[in-house]
Amino acid sequence: MDTTTTTKENKKNKQESKVKVRFITNDPNIRVTDTPLAVPVNLGRLGLSEVINHLRNSEEEENQVTKPFDFLINSKFIRTSLDKHIKNANLTEEDVITIEYLEAITEPKKEKECQHDDWISCVEGGLNGLIVSGSYDLGVRVWDNSGNLLSTGTGHLAGVKSVAWINDKNQDALSFVSASLDKTIRLWNFSNTDKIIKATAVLKEHTGTVESVSISPDRQKIMSGSMDSTIKLWNIKDLNSSTPNTSTQTSKKRKAAATEEIHTITESLASVTVPNSQGVTTVSWPTQFQLISGSMDHSIRLWDLNTMSVSETIHTPSPLHDVSYTVESGLIVSAHADRTIRIWDPRLNNTVVTAEGGHPMQTQSLISHKKWVSSAKWKPNSKYHLCSTSLDGSIKYWDIRTKIPLYSIDRLTESNEKLFCSTWITDKPANIDQSLMVSGGSDSKLRIYHDDDLNNK
Amino acid sequence: MAIDKKPTTKTTAAKKPAVAAAAAPAKKDEKVVAKKTPVATPAAAVKASTPVKVAPTKVAPVKPTTTAVVQQKQPQKQQPTKSTPQPKKEPVIENKRKTLEESEDEEEEEEDELDFGEIREDISEDEGDDEEDLDQEDQDESEQESESKVDLDSLVEYRSDDEEEEEEESIKSNTTSSKSGIDSSEDEDTTVIGKKWTSDPNQFYDDEDSSEDESLVNRVGNIPLEWYEDYDHIGYDVDGNKIMKTESNKDSIDKFLDQADPNFWRTVYDKVNDKNVLLSPEDMALLKNIQNRQFPPDYDPYEFWYDPGPNPDSIHPMHNAPRPKRSFFPHGTDEEREIRRLTKLIRAGWITFDKKDKKTHTYDIWGEGAKTDEVELNQDKHKAITRIPAPKQRLPGNVESFNPPEEYLLTDNEMKAWHLMDPRERPHNFIPQKYNFLRHIPTYNKLIKERFERCLDLYLCPRTKKVKQFTKDANQFLPKLPKPQDLRPFPSHEEIQFNGHTDRVRTISVSPNGQWLASGSNDNTVRIWEVSSTRCVYTLQVDNEVQCVAWNPNPLFNILAIAHNNKVVIITPPLYGPANLQTADTERILTKPDAHSSSKNVDWYAPSDSASVEKGVRLELHLAFKVVNITWHFKGDYFSTTSPEEGSKSVKIHHLSKRASQSPFRRSKTPNQVSKFHPTKPIFFVADQNIIRVYDLMKQELIKKLITGCRYISSIDIHPGGDNVIMSGYDKKVCWFDLDLSVKPYKVLNYHKLAVRKVIYHPTLPLFASCSDDLSIHIFHGMVYDDLLQNALIVPLKILKTHQSVNDLGVLDIAFHPKQPWIFSSGADSTIRLYI
């Protein structure tokens, strides 16, 4: 250990003082030597990136493309110069500091705009690269991952508020569900071969607008939340299986054709009225036995499926617009009307009050949006990444290890457009990590953000 | 001083054998009073030194007082044989100095030297003189005082001796006063050895300098000397070298041995330099004088003063002799006895003088602080009764004049009136009269009475001094209110805008569940917005500018009432699909067999054209005049409309399910402006331009009249509790009425700069808000307490000012979200804004 020399240098010249670091990474493609190196402490992200690039070039003797990297010390992103970070994190320059690095996530260079007829209220990406979107023009649409409209389904009597894929694995019998302002939920089939959307069932029991739907992990049930302050569970197992394939006619005529074919279900499997909720705005069914709902009364409720009772209530400071749960880390992210994205750990003890006076379960709050946050979604299979949209027209990509978004796409902010939804799509089921973002809003355009040409993929 | 100097010359003096012989007589035992020795030695010396010039003046002062001791010794030395007292008087130093200064006379100088020499000689051979002196003294005692100065001297000697002993005690606090063994010669000797004198005339100055330096050896400064207790040194000299301790290191045996030193009694310990200093006889004399409160030895208080002769202008006394002491003696036996008693007491220690009655002031450091003490002190200062000046009397004016201007004189009629007037009502209690000459003025016969009454007034009327209340801090006039931060939640910033209207948005209303926002605009459209997405989900085009929109407050119904021109339109907005798919409750209340009805100048229609049906228009009411205001009853079956132009029947109450209208209110001087239903009771509020009337609908009577003091009421709202009303006026006023308290405003808020358009209560939270043409929305915390004793708490929270002014119109309408602390506002800039 050359700590003594390091300190000597430190004395010699403060500017030239160095710190011993060891670079590690999880990505074998960008791995460099893990022997400790002495780097100047006044380096920032860029300087460290240069160091890594230099190491890679010297090792492999190739002229690789220089890439930007991000660096973490103890799972905290370095956002200032190294010495400031070390100072703030109460580390000592005497020790060898282990720096984890990974390829920096940069703003996607291109975006694909897909024209809608009306405001897009909701969008959902499947693993197959298919996108389903709901709009205020009463229609639901299915797109492929390069932005081509495959089919449009009609049948709702008012704007669609929420969509969700039920089954997107089976290429032949894809199905999704949509919830609408007309108080109904509709089930749809999408045949990838025929590129046809077909309604299979209408679920009518809500007395208020249905704001959100979610599918159970076993894809047998769906959960819906409504402004009538109820959460309902519906069984869709039979519908999916017994969907008659006989009707090959396109149901373009809304009233005549569709009503004959589709099932009408007026009784839910279970219905729970959420007391004092002022309307359930968002639901999520992440694991088999746990349901999550968020409502206008500022609370996130965790439900036990067997008893359909509230197992936990998290009181938040503001009305909720979206909740999302990641199984990777077990965290809940919530989008709030007070411009804040909050991250909750439901496993923490609810009764212990933290020193800061915040909610005991709240682990983080991400504040960067300028208006209320309309949606927040975890990246699939990711512990740290999520994207959020806001009525200020910006979409932000977050890594929860830093308080500053990795990047923010706010081309719409100047035109005063609003974004309501965003989601992740993956072009191939195998390549989950390479997710793209899709967003929709009041500019009536579905936007797919990507780096390379979509068609090439 | 004189003694000191003489010994220094011992070398010269040694030359004089005669003197030595004179001194020879032998050494008496040392117990003989030591101090006599100097007396004796001069005796020998003076034989030769007679010519010393002495001022002959001081005969009288030779008194047996101790002060004279030292002085007198010297003369004795010099002129023992002379019987004249004069030489005694002359201070030796003066002599010497004179001689030196003059230095005319070598002889004299010589004699001086001789003189010194003699003293030197004394060192060895004083004793004989002593004996002589003793003898002399013995004789003297028997002799009469007046006979010779020698007697006096001896007397003096004795006394001085005693006193010196005392002195020694006092200085050294030495218990062993073995002074008997002290030999005066030795005494002299030490002094002589201590200072080596030459005949150099400058010796004195040198000596003085050196002595000065000596006293300043220790340069530690004026610090507590205990700091050096533990060290071997006592300080540092000029060069920074340590000065080692000498005296204080001595152990007790050494100290005891020091006592054997014959000069021990006049040795003083110098703390600073840690040295024993031998007091010179001059010092002793000085000390003695000080002790006896007499003049220093070389000061002549009774100097010869030349009388310049009688001066008639002289205001000064002719001589400067001090007042005779007898003038201070007490007169009479009583006084004497008293004084004797007092002195006795003082001596016994019964009376002490330095006992000061100091009041130790204690501070309560844990109490309210020094402030109260200060206050108390100040009060103590002003304890004396302050004299309050009597109120001044009015000065006499022209009326009181003996020659008043004509207009003050009363005419006959006035005179009559005057006499008829009650004396107390008269402007003054006399009749103005004119006299041509001052001498014609009669005596004022009421003088004594008035003086007496004035005295009574001054005596009996309590007077207080006007204290000018000066308040330093203007903040203390402000009421104590909780901080706005503690009163969250309340809307604090603009979040989103609802854009779509093309003209000023005159009215807005929020649906009971807070999901929808309806707005009516001057562009003749009614729009409904989804609050969460700002999406306009419904638009209805009407024929005229929309005056008012109002959601039915019953959440079961999906009914919106719109007022434009003289029409009221009841619609069921097709928010959840086509208009015909409404809930059963909504359908029930709107369905009635006969499509058309008419009552009290109100025609009810059910439009049947397809466009209207598709837009959800269910009913239309045609009134005679323009409707500006719609208010729903909380159950949703009744609503009331106001059309100010109609006059007495301007307020109508409509029954929706029965499709009936009535106008029960007649009394109103000014056109009715707005009306409101009580949130829970069958009570109805009607406001005309400046009065709010409260009616009981069941009993059909007027309960209350709220006097607003406002000239033009723009809107009123009823607190959800029902006991409080707020009112806004176009004259910039917002008033809060507590119906239990009074019919007058409990609080008047004058915050807005322009006409206040609307004032509303939050349905669930303790908030209220007012909006004005000055573009601002004021959010207040308005907490109403359940107990009747506590008045409502009103705290201004926030001013929201984001609207833009168009044609001098600002914010036209505001509406609270029913559950959230959100407020919607619509303005003349054709936007609707949501503040959260």
UniProtKB/TrEMBL annotation, chain A:
Q: Which GO terms describe its molecular function?
A: ribonucleoprotein complex binding
A Gene Ontology cellular component where this protein is annotated is: nucleoplasm
InterPro entries linked: NLE, WD40/YVTN_repeat-like_dom_sf, WD40_PAC1, WD40_repeat_CS, WD40_repeat_dom_sf, WD40_rpt, WDR12/Ytm1
For this UniProt entry, what is the primary localization, expressed as one broad class? nucleus
Record keywords: Repeat included? Answer: yes
Report the Gene3D superfamilies cross-referenced here. YVTN repeat-like/Quinoprotein amine dehydrogenase
Keywords per UniProt = Nucleus, Repeat, Ribosome biogenesis, rRNA processing, WD repeat
Q: What does this protein do?
A: Required for maturation of ribosomal RNAs and formation of the large ribosomal subunit.
A GO biological-process term: maturation of LSU-rRNA from tricistronic rRNA transcript (SSU-rRNA, 5.8S rRNA, LSU-rRNA)
Q: Which windows of the sequence hold WD repeats?
A: 153-198, 203-244, 291-313, 323-354, 366-408
Q: Which family does it belong to?
A: Belongs to the WD repeat WDR12/YTM1 family.
Localisation: Nucleus, Nucleolus; Nucleus, Nucleoplasm
* rRNA processing among keywords: yes
Query: What's the source species for this entry?
Result: Polysphondylium violaceum
This protein is called Ribosome biogenesis protein WDR12 homolog
- Signal peptide location in the record? none
Stretches assigned to the NLE domain: 19-86
- What highest taxon heads this organism's lineage? Eukaryota
UniProtKB/TrEMBL annotation, chain B:
PROSITE patterns recorded: WD_REPEATS_1 (PS00678), WD_REPEATS_2 (PS50082), WD_REPEATS_REGION (PS50294)
Point to the regions of Low complexity compositional bias: 9-25, 35-86
Pfam families (UniProt xref): BOP1NT, WD40
Q: What are the start and end residues of each WD repeat?
A: 498-539
Q: Boundaries of each BOP1 N-terminal domain copy? A: 228-491
Family from the record: Belongs to the WD repeat BOP1/ERB1 family.
| Name this polypeptide is given | Ribosome biogenesis protein BOP1 homolog
- Native organism is Polysphondylium violaceum
